[in-house]
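Hello, quick one for you while I still have it in my head. A protein chain has come my way and I'm curious about its shape. I'm sending you its amino acid sequence along with the backbone structure tokens. I'd be grateful if you could look everything over and explain what you see. Here's the protein in full, and shout if anything looks odd to you:
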Amino acid sequence: MLKSPALTLAAALLVILLPAAYAAGGFHEPWTETGKFVSAPDGDTLKVRTPLHGVVTVRIAGADTPEHGQGYWRVAKAHLVAMVTSSDVTIGCYKTDRYNREVCRVRTLGGDVAESLVAAGLAWHYKRYESEQTEDERARYADLEQRARAKRIGLWQEPGPMAPEDCRKAHRNGQKCH
């Protein structure tokens, strides 16, 4: 059962705005379920035990946290774990990524998890996939990232932090990242 009008609206908008994307693969009929946190390997992936779907591996939509070994990856993971262990976790899922994770909006009683990570300066607004966000989400996440950068909080304290997407590319090319 949907617990948030925002998740209901987001799911409806995805169905309206992305019909062609379903045919392209990866996207599926959006679904929402509430469950319990199981584990988190990093700051933007978690496992949630749900009544209908069992244990679901979730890639949090909208935020991209530092990769293993990058500065702040452990802080981002700790922030995520603190948010999702304190209450039920509601996941609004709409596609499966190439690693077979469900891509979902994630909420707790504390609010939108991706939003919290970006606001705390522990994640980038994942602009590569911003077309999957509502207009309001895009504006809000971009504003939160800009504010975190301006305040130099979290990873923005560091000179020239490397985006996780660039780190993954460096790793694929046999290079190290910072």
